Amino acid sequence: MKLYYSPGACSLSPQIVLQESGLAYEPVLASTKTHQLQDGTDFYTINPLGYVPVLELDNGTRLREGVAIVQYIADQVPDKKLAPANGSFERYQLQEWLNFIATEVHKGFGPLFRPTTPENYKPIAQAALTQRLQWMDSQLASKDYLMGTQFSVADAYFFTVSRWCGFVGLDLSALKNIQAFQQRMAQRPAVQAALKIEGQS
Hints:
Keywords: Transferase
Number of strands: 4
Low-confidence stretches: none
Shape: globular
Family: Belongs to the GST superfamily.
InterPro entries: Glutathione-S-Trfase_C-like (IPR010987), Glutathione-S-Trfase_C_sf (IPR036282), Glutathione_S-Trfase (IPR040079), Glutathione_S-Trfase_N (IPR004045), GST_C (IPR004046), Thioredoxin-like_sf (IPR036249)
Protein name: Glutathione transferase GstA
Radius of gyration: 17 Å
Distance between the termini: 24 Å
Strand order of the largest sheet: 2-1-3-4
CATH topology of the largest domain: Glutathione S-transferase Yfyf (Class Pi), Chain A, domain 2
Number of domains: 2
Domain GST C-terminal: 87-201
CATH architecture of the largest domain: Up-down Bundle
Order of helices and strands: EHEEEHHHHHHH
Helix content: 40-55%
Largest sheet: 4 strands, mixed
Mean pLDDT: 96
């Protein structure tokens, strides 16, 4: 398998999950600025949408969306318990988390990263994102991970996007549970390995 990634992007999430899985894969750097691979290949030939992550299987088929990719990886190694079993209620709870992180948190950062966002709109976007993060902080009040005591692929995704707060000037100092979650995640060997691959360690 190949994982197309860009340092600092949401592709860190499947990078972490692949490290947790123990599956063999090749990380392939894909610049989201030049849209080229290191060998000069046009990344748009890999993903016409131009963004990462992309998981390419050994047979050449590809998955584009992070929440689909992490669940696919988890299902290849069910003994690792990276996701609850398909068909279980817990699996739908996992999908609930993945969907919330994707649509309410990940997308919330978009206006703050986009250079074309009007300056007078940024405080509105920050307030909306802060509200979502405050709710997530409350959900982590009595548990180590989003699903409870067991790490899941949703944790890899939330860890990835919550790290962006520093880049957009969002202060997490009042969100003690998220801070503790980030520290807990940073201690996981798979997270450390993924960050090293991406040059972020």
